[in-house]
Design a protein that fits this description.
The complex is a heterodimer of chains A (about 290) and B (about 170). Chain A is α+β, with helices and mostly antiparallel strands. Helix content of chain A is about 35%, strand content about 25%. Chain A has 3 domains: about 5-55, Uridine Diphospho-n-acetylenolpyruvylglucosamine Reductase, domain 2 (2-Layer Sandwich); about 60-175, Uridine Diphospho-n-acetylenolpyruvylglucosamine Reductase, domain 3 (2-Layer Sandwich); about 180-285, Enolase-like, domain 1 (2-Layer Sandwich). Chain A has helices at about 15-25, 35-40, 80-85, 85-90, 90-100, 105-110, 110-115, 125-130, 225-235, 240-250, 265-285, and strands at about 5-10, 30, 50-55, 65, 70-75, 135-140, 145-150, 155, 160, 165-175, 180-185, 195-205, 210-215, 225. Chain A has a 5-stranded antiparallel beta sheet. Chain A has a 4-stranded antiparallel beta sheet with strand order 11-12-13-14. Chain B has about 170 residues and is of the alpha+beta class. In chain B, helix 2 (about 90-95) crosses helix 5. Classes of the chains: A alpha+beta (about 290), B alpha+beta (about 170). Bound molecules: flavin-adenine dinucleotide and FE2/S2 (inorganic) cluster (2 copies). One FE2/S2 (inorganic) cluster (FES) binds near residues 100, 101, 104, 105 and 139 of chain B.
Amino acid sequence: MIPGSFAYHRPSSVQEAVALLADLGTEARALAGGHSLIPMMKLRLAAPDNLVDLAGIKELKSIRADGGDIVIGAMTTQHEVLASDLLTQKIPILRETALQIADPQVRYAGTLGGNVANGDPGNDMPAVMLCLGAAYQVTGKSGERRIAAREFYQGAYFTALEPGEILTAIRIRVPATGHGYGYEKLKRKIGDYATAAAAVVLTMTGGTVASCSIGLTNVAETPLWAEAAANILVGSSLNAATVKRAVAAAEAITAPATDSRGPAIYRTKMAGVMLARALAHARSRAS
Amino acid sequence: MAKIQIAMTVNGEAVEALAEPRTLLIHFLREQLNLTGPHIGCDTSHCGACTVDLDGKSMKSCTVFAVQASGAEIRTIEGMAAADGTLHALQEGFREMHGLQCGFCTPGMIVRAYRLLQENPNPTETEIRFGIAGNLCRCTGYQNIVKAIQYAAAKLNGVPLQEAAE
Ligand SMILES: Cc1cc2nc3c(=O)[nH]c(=O)nc-3n(C[C@H](O)[C@H](O)[C@H](O)COP(=O)(O)OP(=O)(O)OC[C@H]3O[C@@H](n4cnc5c(N)ncnc54)[C@H](O)[C@@H]3O)c2cc1C
Ligand code: FES
Ligand code: FES
C-alpha cells in the first residue's frame, strides 16, 4: 500500500514547525512516531499534502520534574516512558499502561504526544491523562496555551487542538505518595486496541478512600472521565456493594460501538469488569 | 512529488539513493538497495517481518518513510553474519534449534531478537515471548524460536544451552 504524495519538512524548533504548519495550510500535518498516521496514509484514509516531522526538535524530547509536576515532552516514546526511572517512581500508572500498548516495535516509535493528540478513542494514554488530570501544553502561531486533558477530547479524531497548533508537552501533577493505581485492559490479543479498559488512581486513609479518579478507554467516541463513579467511592471502604454502584455509574456513561471487538452491551460490561479489577489492584497498592 | 536524495548507513555501508518522500523504508531497502531480506508480510504494521534495526531500535520498516531514516544507522538481516560468512549466534541458534519452517518471519525475528539481547542479554522465557510480541510466525508455534533465542543468549554469554529443539 502506497500513501499519497506529500512534501516532507523537518524543522529543528517548535517555532519553525508552527510557522511551517501555518504557511502550509490545513492539509499539512504534524508527523510524530507515525504509527497511527502512516497506517492511515497507507489506507488513504489520510492524505496530507505536507508532513512536518517533529523528530528533529530536541526540546520535545525530555522528561523533567517541575515543582510538584512532571513535564513530559511530546516526542517522548512509549519505550522511553518505560525506561524512565523518574516516571516509574512518581507516576507508575504510565509504565503500566505503556506496557499494554501495542508491541515492542510500535513502542520504540509511538510517542506520548502522538498517542494523546491523535484523538482515536482506542488509544490508551488519553483515559490515563483524564484520570491523572493532566494538562496539555500546545503552541500555535499566536502563542502558547494550556488545555486540560479533561476538556481536550470532543469526538473521534476531533480535539481542542486548533489547526496549526502542536502539542509540545504533557504536564502531570505527581499523585500523592502512597497512592494506588491500576490500568486494566481487555484485548483480544497482544498488540490489540482495548475492547474496554479502565484507569484508576486513588488514595486511602485509615481504610477508606480519600480520593479517587477513573478514566475509561474505547467505550465511547472519546475517552471518558468517570467522575460520578469515582465520587460514589470516596469515603467508602471499597466494599462490594459500593463498588457495584460505582461500576454501574461508570457503565451508564459508556456508549461503545458494536464492532469486531464485540457488541456494544458486551463492551459496556467489560468496561465495568475492567474498572472493578483496576479498583482492586489500586487498593492493593495503596498505602 | 519530486524525488529527493536520501542518505543513510546500512549494514555499515554509507548508501544514497533518490526516492519520493512517500517511499516507505521497506521499499527503499528492497527495491533501491536490493536488500530483500526484510520481508513484507502484512503491510499493516502487525507482523514484524519487515523489522530492521534503526539507530538502536527495532522498527517495522513498512511503517517508516525512508526520508525519516535519513542519516540513520540501519541493520538488516543481511548485516548479521560476519564478513567471512560466520553466522551470528542468533542465526546459528535458529538453525540448531529449528527456529524456522518456511523462514518468512525469520529475518524480522532475528533482527528483533538482536536488539532484545542487546537490551537484555539474559532474558527469561517470558521476557523473550514479550520481547518478540511484535513478530508473528504462522509456522512454528514459537516454541523453537524461543529456544533459538535462548541458544543465542547462552552462546553470547559463554554458557552453551543444554536443551534440545522440540
Ligand atoms: C500494530 C499497532 C498496534 C497499536 N496498538 C495500540 C494500542 O494498543 N494502544 C494505543 O494507545 N495505541 C496503539 N497503537 C498506536 C500507537 O501507539 C501510535 O504510535 C500512537 O497512537 C500515535 O503516536 P505516534 O507518535 O505514532 O503519532 P503519529 O502517528 O505520528 O500521529 C498521530 C496523529 O497525531 C498528530 N500528532 C502527533 N504528534 C503531535 C503533536 N506533538 N502535536 C500535534 N499533533 C500531533 C498527527 O498529526 C496525527 O494526526 C498501535 C499502532 C500499531 C501500528
Ligand atoms: S510488513 Fe511490516 S509489520 Fe508486517
Ligand atoms: S517460519 Fe514460517 S512464518 Fe515463521
